[in-house]
Amino acid sequence: MSLSLGSPMQRVARLFCVLALFELVSLWPSRAEEPSDYSGEVPASLRGPFIFEPDVVVALDCAQHSACDGPLNFRTLIEAKARKYEELGQKNPFLLGIAEPIQRTLATDLNELTTKADAKDFQLHTEFLTDPGSRIELVGVINRMDRQFITDPSLTPAQRGCGEISVIYRFSYDLANGRKSRLPVTMNIVFPALPGDTHGGAIICQGVAERWVGELARPAGRTPTQKVEDLLDTGSGPLALIKGEDMLRIEINAQVYRKPAGVV
Question: Is residue 259 part of a domain?
Answer without folding.
Answer: no
